[in-house]
Amino acid sequence: MRPEKSDLTDARKSQGNRLTEAEAIERAKQGDEEAFEVLYRLHKRRVYSLCLRMTANTAAAEDLTQEAFLQLFRKIATFRGESAFSTWLHRMAVNVVLMQLRKKGLPLVSLEETMETEEESPKKEPGAEDIRLAGSINRLQLEQAIGDLPPGYRMVFLLHDVEGYEHNEIAEMVGCSIGNSKSQLHKARMKLRELLKTSRAEKATQP
Amino acid sequence: MTCEEFGRVLPELEGDHLNGEREEHLKTCLSCSGLVSDLNAISAEARLLVEDQEPSPRVWNCIAIALRQEGLIRDPEVPALLAGSRLRGWRLAWLRPVAIALVVGAALFLQLEHIPRGAPVARQAATSTPVLRTDGVGQDSAIDADEVQLLNLVASRAPAMRAGYESDLRAVNAYIRDAETSVRNNPNDGIAQQYLMNAYEQRAMVYEMAMKRALP
Amino acid sequence: MEHRETLAKLVVAVLFAGTVVASAETRQEFRFKVHHRASVSVANQFGPIWVKPSSGEEVVVTAVLHSDKVEVDHTYSLNRVSITSHLLAGADADSGRVEYQVSVPADANVTLHSATGPLRAERLHGDVMLEGNTANVDVRDLIGGHVHIKTLNGPVTLTNVSDGHVEITSVGGDVALNSVNGPLVHVNSTSGRIVYDGDFGGGGEYSLMTHTGDIEATAPSYASIDVMASSTQGKVENDFLLQPTHTSLAAKAGNAFAGTMGKAASSVRLLSFSGKIHLKKR
Cβ–Cβ of B38/A121 closer than 8 Å? Predict the structure, then answer.
C-alpha cells in the first residue's frame, strides 16, 4: 500500500500541546476519554471521507464512521504497533463499509460487471474533436463523476486510485479475482473519462 | 498491433512498463496515446482528492456514549484492580447491569406469585419493585446516574421533552432487564440473545436522540 | 349603539391580531440543480416535512417559517443538499416551527429529521432515512430503495413499499405495514404495537419483534412462508394450518407455533416478549 495521504505522523502533535498519537494510543488502552477523542479527531476526516465517497449518503457515512471507530476502540488494547495506526484504522473502516453493503444485499461487484465483455477500444472518428483531459481535470467534477459511477465500479476505483490498495488486497476484500479487480478499475476509469468529457462538452456549449 | 488489441490488454498494463509492440503502437496512434494519457490523469487526480469532509459532532457524541456504556472509558478513580484486570470492554460493561438484573430478578421472584398469568412482567416490575440504588439516584430504580445527567442535559435545552425521554429510558431499561434475565436463564437461546441485542439497540437509539436534543 | 361600537372594535382587534400573526410567517423557496442519485437531508426540530418526486433534476424546497425566531440554513455541494432549521434564542415549539415541502428527483437519497413532524415521503425509489421523536411517519409508494426509520413514540405507517430493505426501530410508537414486501423487513419495538397486512412476498426475511407490544399479522391463504411465532409471557393465535418443521423452538400451546405454508419462500418471525401475537388469515 502506498504511503499515507495524511500528513499527520505519529510524532506530530494533534492540537497545540495535546497528546501525540502514540501517547493517545497508550492512554486509550487505559480508558482515557481524552485520548480516544484525540485519536478520533486525528483520523475522522479520512474515515468519513472514505465512507461518504463509498456510500454517497451523509447519514450512512456518519453511521459507518461511528461503527469503524467503535470497532477500532474496542480492539485498541490489541494494537502492538506492527503497522501504522492509521493503516489499521483505515482497513477497519473499509471492512465496515463492505460489511454494511453486503448486509444490505448490495452487490459489491455487479453480475453485469463481472461478465466477460469485449473491452472498449477508443473509437476512431475521423475529424472528430479529441478533447484531452490531461492537465485540466476539475476536482469537483471528478468528485461528481465518481458519485455517478455504478456502485461496483466506484468501489474498486475508490479502493485503488483514491485509497491506494493493490489489486490483490481489493480482490480479497471485495471477494473477486485479481483479474476482475483490474477489469473493474479500467471500466471505472473509462466511464469517468466519458463523464468528464461530457461534462466539459456541456460547459463549452453553455453561454 | 491494432487499437482493438491494445484496448484488450490495457486493463492489464497498469503499473507495467510498456514495451515492444505496445509501446510502438502508442508512438504511432494518437487515439490510444490520448486514451492512456487521460486515464493516467484521472488516476493521478484521484490520488490528490483530499479528505475535507467532516462528520457532524453527533458522531463523536455517539461514540463517547457507546464507549462509556461498554466500559472502555474509565474514570481515573477506578480501582487499579479493575483497571488492570482482564475484565475488559464488554465484560466490564456487563457487570453493573447484570448486578442490577440479579437484584431485580430476586425481587421479581418473590413477587411472581402475586402477578396474574400473562401480565406484562416489565411493567409490573417497574411499579412494584422499587430497588434502592447505592449510587445516590434515590427512588429512580430504572435510571442510573449517567442517564439522569443525560436527561438533565436534555431538559436544559428542551424542557418539554424530558418526561418523554425519561419514560422511554425506563421502558428500554425494562426491556434490557427482561432480556438479560432471559439470556441468563437460557444462554443458548438464539431468540433470547436477539431480544437482548434489540433491547440494547433501542437504548442506544434513545441515547443518540437525547444527545441530539442536548446539543446546541 | 354602544354595543355596536364595542363589536366593531372587537372585530378590528381580531382582524389586526390575525394580520399580525399572518405577517409573522414568511415563505422561502430554494432551488438546487442536482444529478441523479443526489443526497438530500432536511433537519427540522418542529414542524412537518413532506417529500415527493420532482419532474426534473432539481431539488425544490419550500419553507414556511412561523416566526422570526427560526432561520433556514442550507448547504449545497457535490450533489448534496442539506437544509437545517436553525432555532434562535427564545424559540419554542410554536415560534420555531417550519413547514417544509420538498421535491426531489425520484432516485434521490433522502434523510429527514424532525422531533415533532409529521414526516411524509412518497413515490421515491432512492434510499429514505427518517428520524423523529413523536413525529407521525408516513411513507408510501416507495419501490426499490431502502427505508430506515427511527422513532421514539411517533406512529409509523408504511404503505405499498417494496423491493428494498425496510428497518424500523420504534420505542413506543405503533408500526403499521400495509403491502410491504422486500428482501428484508425488520421491525424492532419496545412497547409499540406492530400490525402487518400483506403477503410476506418476495422471498424475503421478515422479522417483527417487540418487548411488550402486540403483533397482528394478516396474510392471504396463498402466502408462501416459513413462520415462527413466540411470546414468552403472552398468547399466540394462528388462523392457518401449517406444515410442521424441525425447529428448536418448543411449540408450546398458546405461547409458540412454527411451520410452513406453500413453498416457504419467505422467512417470518413474530416475536413478542409479553405481548399477544395473532397470525390472521385474510
Answer: no
* Closest residue to C150, CB basis, from B174, B179, B205: B205
Q: Shortest CA distance to C136 belongs to which of C149, C147, C126, C145? A: C149
| Closest by Cβ to B39, choosing from A32, A66, A193 | A193
Choose the closest CB to A147 out of C37, C111, C183.
C37
Residue C249's pLDDT is what? Answer: 60
Q: Which band of pLDDT confidence, cut at 50, 70 and 90, is reported for residue A7?
A: very low
For residue B64, name the pLDDT band (cuts at 50, 70, 90). Answer: confident
Average pLDDT (C103-115) is 93
- For helices B162-185 and B89-111, give the axis angle rounded to 10 degrees: 90
Contact partners, residue B48, CB within 8 Å, separation at least 6? A139
Beta-carbon separation of C171 and B202 below 8 A:
yes
Domains in chain A, ordered, with CATH? 17-106 (1.10.1740.10), 132-207 (1.10.10.10)
pLDDT digits (tens, 9 = 90+) for A77-126: 888 776 788 888 888 888 888 887 777 665 555 444 444 344 443 444 33
Cβ contacts below 8 Å, chain A against chain C, sum to 36
